[in-house]
Write a structure and sequence with these properties.
The chain is α/β, with parallel strands linked by helices. It has eleven helices and twelve strands. It is about 40% helix and about 15% strand. The model has no long low-confidence stretch (mean pLDDT about 95).
Length: about 325
């Protein structure tokens, strides 16, 4: 990867040690940006090891660290977020995802940052009841948003739009669907699902659906939003819509296993979710919760036509994302 010249734009990237952020970092370096990465003290930095970038310590819940991090930057990519489908303290997630986003964007504006790309999520968008693909204009009903993570991303996106509208903050919003691929070290909830399915630990599935996209295409879409996106606009960065059964079948094929063939109805799983929530009070992370079951009742299908049209976004076939994820998890397991 070529070194950035001394006169290249200085770009702050939050969340670079994570799954999507580390992919964005690589695209930015390939485009010639000088990178400053915001990382939490003591966090796992394996995803950015060897990258030519300056790392500064900070946290979304520490406004002073954000003010310091943005100084001298021309661009800011805000990718960091608390991404968990269950948390013991919902308020902590709201502080990071909503208040932290607001603090960072205000700091960036005060520092004279030219353009900000904010990584939201399709979790902040509306859905069609009939399962047809939603887009950036699909109405959102906040009272129906299931789960604290989705609520936090919706509130954060609304805060960004308000800052753009009321304070002329130069932000473009991208809404990734369900990224899959290499370097999912945590892993994300979706990554864990792919990993377990590849290992034969997913014997059954429920009738739901999601939009799968390669993480590297999501990263490319972030940079395209910087280069071609319109301030205050939202762009879905998605791939292809699949049922969960199809996702597991592709994962099994990539791993050389038989796919699960048992479809479970959602309603009878509610008692299991209640039991998992009870055990969670004793520090055992729940396998399923009532919130995740509520999410599963809706098919998360989306259209990326706007990003294709305005940004030149062109994602690869989603099967490649699943194959790359399975290969990466296999190598990570061998290295462990």
């Amino acid at each position: 990867m070529a070194s950035a010249s001394s006169d290249a734009p200085l770009t702050l990237l939050t969340g670079a040690t994570g799954f999507v952020g580390s992919a964005v970092a690589r695209v930015l370096l390939a485009r010639g940006h000088r990178l400053r990465l915001l990382a939490r003290k003591g966090g796992n930095r394996a995803n950015v090891a060897g990258l030519e970038a300056a790392v500064v310590e900070g946290d979304l819940t520490d406004p002073a660290s954000l003010t310091s991090a943005v100084q001298g930057c021309r661009y800011v990519f805000h990718v960091a977020a608390d991404y968990r489908l269950w948390v013991p303290e919902p308020e902590a997630m709201l502080r990071a995802n909503v208040e932290g986003t607001t603090s960072l964007l205000r700091a960036a504006q005060s520092a004279g940052v030219e353009r900000i790309v904010y990584c939201s999520s399709v979790a902040a968008l509306g859905l069609h009841a009939d399962g047809t693909p939603a887009d950036e204009t699909t109405p959102v009903h906040p009272e129906n948003i299931a789960g604290i993570y989705k609520q936090s991303k919706y509130r954060a996106e609304q805060a960004v739009l308000a800052l753009v509208r009321d304070h002329a903050v130069p932000a473009v919003i991208v809404n990734p669907s369900t990224p899959v691929g290499p370097r999912d070290i945590k892993p994300t909830p979706t990554g864990k699902m792919i990993r377990d399915a590849a290992a034969g630990k997913m014997p059954a599935y429920v009738d739901t659906g999601l939009n799968i996209v390669h993480v590297d295409d999501v990263a490319e879409g972030h940079v395209l939003a910087l280069e071609h996106g319109r301030i205050g606009e939202k762009y879905i960065l998605g791939g292809e819509d699949f049922s969960l059964r199809e996702v597991f079948a592709m994962t099994a094929a990539a791993a050389g296993r038989r796919p699960p063939r048992i479809e479970l109805p959602i309603a009878p799983l509610v008692p299991l979710a209640l039991a998992c929530e009870l055990l969670a009070r004793f520090g055992i992370e729940p396998v399923v919760t009532r919130e995740t079951l509520a999410m599963a009742r809706k098919k998360m299908f989306f259209s990326s036509d706007k990003a294709r049209r305005e940004l030149g976004y062109a994602p690869r076939p989603a099967i490649q994302a699943i194959e790359d994820a399975v290969a990466w998890f296999r190598l990570a397991r061998k290295a462990a």
